[in-house]
Specification:
This protein has 202 residues and is mainly β. It contains one helix and twelve strands, in the order αββββββββββββ. It is elongated and about 50 Å long.
Length: 202
C-alpha cells in the first residue's frame, strides 16, 4: 500500500475535525434572567430549565420594543414568526422589524421553534394591503416569496440599540444563537432584551 494513502486519510480526518470545530451547534434560548455574575447570566428558560450563558466581552445588546403595524411599509426588512395556513399563506403570530443596518440578516424561510410547526421568514416587504382579517403582506427573499396575513392583535416589535445594563434579573430575553463550547458551556455574542416588561415574542 502506498505510504501516501494513510497520510491522506489522516489529513481528511484532521480537516473534517477542523470543519466541525468551526461550526459549533447554536442554541436558541428564550427565558428570564435570574442572576448576573460578571459575564455569566443565569437564565430560567421558557420550559423551566436553569441555564448558564457566558456573554462575550463585546456582546451586542438590543432592546426589543413594541411598535405599530403601520411601521411595516414596502421596503421594510422584517422577520415574521408564523403558522402555515391550508391555502399556503403564513398567519403571523409575531413580527419584528429590523433596523436598516441589519437588513439581510438570516434572510430566508425556515422552520421555527416558537410553537410546533411554526415558521420564520426574514425578508423584504414587497407589498402591504389591508384585508378583512388584518394586513396582507407579500415578502420577498432571495429564494422566493411568501404571502403573510398579520391579524390586528399580532405583536409587532423592533430592535433598538441597548447596553449591558439591561442584562439584569427579571429581564426577559431571547438569544438566537448561543454557541455550545467544547467544555459544554454556552456563549453568546448577542442578547435581545424585552423593553418595558415585554417578552420578545418571536
Amino acid at each position: 500500500m502506498p505510504k501516501s494513502l494513510p497520510l491522506a486519510a489522516l489529513l481528511l480526518v484532521v480537516f473534517a475535525s477542523a470543519a466541525s470545530a468551526q461550526q459549533p451547534p447554536a442554541v436558541r434560548i428564550r427565558g428570564t434572567i435570574e442572576a448576573v455574575d460578571g459575564a455569566m447570566l443565569s437564565i430560567k428558560s421558557r420550559d423551566g430549565a436553569d441555564m448558564k450563558v457566558r456573554t462575550t466581552d463585546n456582546v451586542a445588546v438590543f432592546g426589543v420594543a413594541k411598535t405599530d403595524l403601520s411601521e411595516i411599509k414596502p421596503g421594510s426588512y422584517i422577520g415574521v414568526t408564523a403558522m402555515p395556513e391550508p391555502d399556503g399563506t403564513q398567519k403571523a403570530i409575531a413580527v419584528h422589524i429590523f433596523p436598516e443596518n441589519q437588513r439581510g440578516a438570516a434572510e430566508g424561510f425556515r422552520p421555527w421553534d416558537l410553537r410546533a410547526n411554526s415558521t420564520m421568514t426574514n425578508a423584504t416587504v414587497a407589498e402591504t394591503v389591508k384585508g378583512t382579517d388584518g394586513q396582507n403582506i407579500t415578502v420577498k427573499y432571495k429564494d422566493g416569496e411568501k404571502k403573510v396575513v398579520v391579524p390586528p392583535d399580532t405583536p409587532v416589535v423592533t430592535f433598538v440599540a441597548g447596553d449591558k445594563s439591561e442584562l439584569k434579573p427579571g429581564a426577559k430575553i431571547i438569544i438566537f444563537g448561543a454557541l455550545k463550547k467544547d467544555d459544554g458551556t454556552l456563549e453568546a455574542n448577542r442578547v435581545n432584551v424585552g423593553r418595558d416588561g415585554i417578552a420578545p415574542p418571536m
